[in-house]
Design a protein that fits this description.
about 500 residues; alpha/beta; Rossmann fold; Luciferase, domain 3; GMP Synthetase, Chain A, domain 3; nine-stranded mixed sheet; four-stranded antiparallel sheet; about 25% helix; AMP-dep_synth/lig_dom; AMP-dependent synthetase and ligase; ligase; AMP-bd_C
């Protein structure tokens, strides 16, 4: 029985299996087209076996286990097994270069590392252990998520809430908007599970939903899975949604069972958003703004966005918003400043590795460094991160705004805008463009004129570079600082 403070995650798995042992719980769609499926009892048994195998390698309550594997059964059972013994799972990017991997692992300080080398042996070891339920233990912290760049100390963001499940953690976003949600949900997981959007789908599993996990995102395979598995919801980045919308024949594919989708992790170009309104319906598309540090959440549904175009919404699930200047003083509606949030979960995080916590006000509002403004009705409009803002010729330009304009060009598949050193302008607005396959345009000048037709002329790029493919990670993230460094700063 769930209480106000929830139940330990390990116990929750046992309860699900006892209630409906043969209900399908996890499906992993492999890159080779194969499919591995587990029902609730198999998930429960596997978590107990993996917990015992990890304990045999020295993992104990309060320890951390690093998960450096692709989306897989091993990743899921490794995380659940860690919770079973009261440990803290920390997914880590599997594709880091060796030097960065070692830096990150030094900060994680994991007792056990599960990677592509150790996972097969652990799976074999787990199979030899009994599957009966382990004693109930609560992890002191729910999980960790890594956030590391090419320079500086890697950050490992630890959710400091105990590893206990509550129904609130599994409540679908759509239910907060009054939309129809069929339970159990069938949740597609296109994102790598080292990313927050991917890993947090384990809350849906704990809520009784079925996860359809892609080993690696591929747009065509994702559409196939949506049709074949009866997917009802998924969370995706704008880049993923762009690739899904570009699948040949997408208008004729069966998306009828998709009840709602959630977009996060980056700003959504208006043209792409309207395309998804056509593919689904405005009331089935939800956008959210938040951060792994859990300062708060902002959300908006598509039909509401149509009356507030460009907004990412209002405070969600108890989140309060303020826009403050560099001295933490409030600014008037319509004025850009730093976005500060406060919610019931504000402060439920810590950093390993000695990184300072995010700036906060004396009364508990925190900021991740994003800039934006509020309108008179309290709707938030994001600009970009303060650190990404380009000062060119004395004027402030937000890269996301320029990227949004360029992304509306029908022959542009992807674009990133950075500021490069320039003797005349201080920083020169430079667009790095990936053309849509099969096209030869636009030219550099056409890109510049395209932006000038939509934004103030000083926001248009001074130079445009064309590349075969932008270097996005599996989570579709990109490092602006690395792109700038590669081009001379």
């Amino acid at each position: 029985m769930t209480t106000a403070v929830g139940v330990p995650i390990g116990q929750r798995l046992s309860d699900l299996a006892a209630a409906d042992p043969h209900r399908l719980s996890v499906v992993v769609v492999r890159q080779d087209g194969g499919r591995e499926a587990l029902d609730r009892q198999q998930v429960e048994d596997g978590a107990n076996r993996w917990g015992r195998a990890l304990a045999a390698r020295g993992l104990a309550a309060g320890d951390r286990v690093a998960l450096l594997v692709h989306n897989s059964v091993e990743l899921v059972l490794g995380a659940l097994g860690a919770w079973k013994v009261g440990a803290v799972p920390v997914p880590v990017r599997w594709d880091l270069p060796a030097w960065e991997r070692e830096r990150v692992l030094a900060v994680v300080a994991a007792r056990v590392v599960i990677d592509e080398g150790t996972a097969p042996a652990l799976r074999a070891e787990a199979a030899a252990f009994p599957a009966d339920p382990l004693p109930t233990v609560t992890s002191p912290h729910s999980f960790g998520i890594c956030s590391s760049g090419s320079t500086g100390t890697p950050k490992v963001i630890v959710n400091t809430r105990p590893g206990r499940w509550t129904a609130e953690l599994s409540t679908p976003f759509a239910e907060n908007f009054g939309g129809p949600v069929t339970h159990p949900q069938v949740v597609l997981v296109p994102a790598p599970m080292y990313h927050t959007n991917g890993f947090m789908t384990l809350n849906s599993l704990l809520g009784g939903d079925r996860l359809v996990i892609m080993e690696k995102f591929d747009a065509v395979a994702a559409v196939d899975a949506i049709e074949r598995e009866g997917v009802t919801t998924f969370t995706a980045t704008p880049t993923m949604l762009q690739r899904l919308a570009a699948v040949p024949g997408i208008d004729g594919r069966d998306l009828s069972r998709v009840e709602w989708i959630l977009q996060g992790a980056a700003m959504m170009p208006a043209a792409l958003l309207r395309r998804w309104f056509e593919l689904l319906a405005p009331e089935k598309v939800i956008m959210a703004y938040g951060m792994t540090e859990q300062l708060g959440l902002v959300a908006i549904r598509g039909d509401e966005w149509l009356t507030h175009p460009g907004s990412v919404g209002r405070g969600f699930r108890g989140t309060e918003l303020r826009i403050l200047d560099e001295n933490q003083n409030p600014v008037p509606a319509g004025t850009y400043g730093d976005v500060y949030l406060r919610s019931p979960v504000t402060g439920a995080y810590d950093y390993l590795g000695g990184a300072p916590l995010l700036p906060t006000t004396p009364d508990g509002f925190g900021t991740a460094g994003d800039m934006g403004h509020l309108d008179e009705q309290g709707y938030l409009y994001l600009a970009d991160r303060r650190v990404d803002m380009i000062i060119t010729g004395g004027a402030n330009v937000f890269p996301a705004e320029v990227e949004g304009a360029l992304s509306e060009h029908p022959d542009i598949a992807d674009v990133v805008v950075v500021g490069l050193s320039d003797p005349a302008w201080g920083r020169r607005i430079h667009a790095i463009v990936e053309r849509r396959p099969g096209t030869t345009g636009p030219t550099e000048q056409e890109c510049i004129e395209f932006v000038k037709a939509r934004l103030a002329s000083y926001k248009a790029p001074k130079t445009v570079e064309f590349v075969a493919e932008l270097p996005r990670s599996a989570a579709t993230k990109i490092s602006r600082s690395a792109l700038v460094a590669e081009r001379g700063g």
